[in-house]
Each structure stands twice: as structure tokens, then as C-alpha cells.
Design brief:
Layout: H1 5-9, E1 12-16, H2 23-36, E2 40-43, H3 48-55, E3 61-66, H4 75-87, E4 92-96, H5 99-104, H6 107-123, E5 127-131, H7 139-152, E6 156-158, H8 170-179, E7 185-189, H9 195-203, E8 208-211, H10 214-225
Helix pairs in contact: 2-3, 4-6, 7-8
């Protein structure tokens, strides 16, 4: 095997963003993430504080969304939302670009919108993933976003929210890795539901994936690695939007 359990577990951002998840579902999802020691839990903002409490003492980072899912919040609202999330304990943020402004070619607005959140979040010790929603964009627009994100120094560029018409394609992941500087990582979201797919995108340079099928993927990894399989936590939460 060309991977360890930690290699694949620490690629996963366990997604708890489906609006139909109950409070019990959200708690179960956090416990699953903690048991399997994934990279982070990406949870709806209102539940973030509770997520932080559940993950305390583990290596799993609490994270949440900004301007989700369509990116059309005013920049001031995105900034306020980001600062409030960090106050609540978020260590990572997944922020959606203003898709309308990208499609309109208003790159100065787009740059300010991203920079306003990224600069102040990083100053407070939080990392930021910038979501493009590639299914609506041309390759030229994706490349320009990679360039802007590189110049700003975002932590990850990310393919999609899960609310658009498409997810993470190989072509997009290759393009984003090619046009992002080495210090900017790539996150795949949408369609990564099996260990084989996780390993495929890993080979393309992806370091994080948004996922709901965490248990299935990591139990598969355990079996392939000859580890003791078995899941003792509550049943996996209902699928999210990833």
C-alpha cells in the first residue's frame, strides 16, 4: 500500500452541512470524526460551538462555512461571519467566492472579498479554503481565481460547495493544482465517496476532501491495511451536501 491510515484520514473534512441534519445527527457526526481522527469537521455555523466541545482534546479541527452556499453575502457580512466563527472556536473556514462577481469579471471586488476574510482570519490563526463553484465557471475564470488566491496567500482553493450542478472533476483538480503556487493546497468537494476515489484525487495533488462517506472510506482503508476494522460509534449521520 502506498498510504497509511493517517495519510487518508487526515485528507477528510467530515461534512455536516445538510440542513435536514438534526441536533443528534450533528453530535453523532462529530463523534464519528473524533473516532476516526479525520482532519476536520465542517459543520453548520450555528452548531460550531458544540462541535468544538465534542472535539476538544482530539487532533480533529472544528471548521465551518462562510458565505455559504452561494457566496452572494455582502463582504462585510462575510467578514463578520468569519470573525464570529473564530470566536466560536473555528480553526478552518470554507468561504464561497461571490460567484456573480466572478462571472461579471469584477476581479477587484472578488480580490477584496477574499482578502478581507483571509487576511484577518489568518491573523487570528485560522486557515481559509476558498470555494470556486467550478461548475458555473470557465477555465479562464478558474485560472484567474487561482492566481488571485495565490497572490493573497489562501490556504486552500476548493472546487465546489455541493449545492451546484457538479463536483470535483479530474480536469478541474489538475487545472487548480497547475495554476496555484506550492503554498496553496487544493481541496476536492463533491463526488469523493470511496477510498479509491480519494486515492485518485490524492495522486492529482489534492490534500483535503469534503466527504460524508467517512466511515465507509476509512473502514475500507483499515481492511486494506490489515488493521482491526469495526465501528463502535453511533451510526453515520445522514449524507450532507458533499
Amino acid at each position: 500500500m502506498n498510504f497509511t491510515y493517517e495519510d487518508v484520514a487526515k485528507m477528510i473534512d467530515h461534512s455536516l452541512l445538510n440542513p435536514t441534519l438534526t441536533w443528534l445527527d450533528l453530535e453523532k457526526g462529530c463523534l464519528i470524526a473524533r473516532e476516526y481522527q479525520v482532519a476536520s469537521v465542517c459543520i453548520a455555523p450555528f452548531a460550531l460551538k458544540h462541535c468544538v466541545e465534542i472535539l476538544a482534546g482530539s487532533t480533529v479541527k472544528p471548521s465551518t462555512t462562510i458565505g455559504f452556499p452561494h457566496g452572494c453575502h455582502k463582504s462585510e457580512i462575510k467578514f463578520t461571519e468569519a470573525m464570529a466563527a473564530i470566536d466560536d472556536g473555528a480553526m478552518e473556514l470554507d468561504m464561497v467566492v461571490n460567484i456573480s462577481k466572478v462571472l461579471s469579471g469584477d476581479w477587484e471586488y472578488v480580490r477584496h472579498d477574499i482578502h478581507n476574510v483571509v487576511h484577518h482570519s489568518q491573523q487570528r490563526g485560522a486557515k481559509v479554503k476558498v470555494i470556486f463553484e467550478n461548475c458555473y465557471l470557465t477555465d479562464e475564470q478558474k485560472v484567474r481565481l487561482c492566481e488571485i488566491c495565490g497572490e493573497i496567500g489562501v490556504d486552500w482553493v476548493k472546487t465546489s460547495t455541493g449545492y451546484g450542478t457538479g463536483g470535483a472533476t479530474d480536469a478541474d483538480l489538475i487545472l487548480m493544482r497547475k495554476h496555484s503556487p506550492g503554498n496553496v493546497q487544493v481541496k476536492a468537494a463533491g463526488g469523493v465517496r470511496t477510498l479509491d476515489r480519494l486515492l485518485e484525487v490524492r495522486a492529482l495533488g489534492v490534500t483535503r476532501c469534503g466527504a460524508t462517506q467517512t466511515v465507509a472510506m476509512l473502514e475500507d482503508a483499515k481492511q486494506r491495511l490489515g488493521m482491526v476494522a469495526g465501528h463502535n460509534a453511533p451510526a453515520e449521520a445522514a449524507p450532507g451536501m458533499y
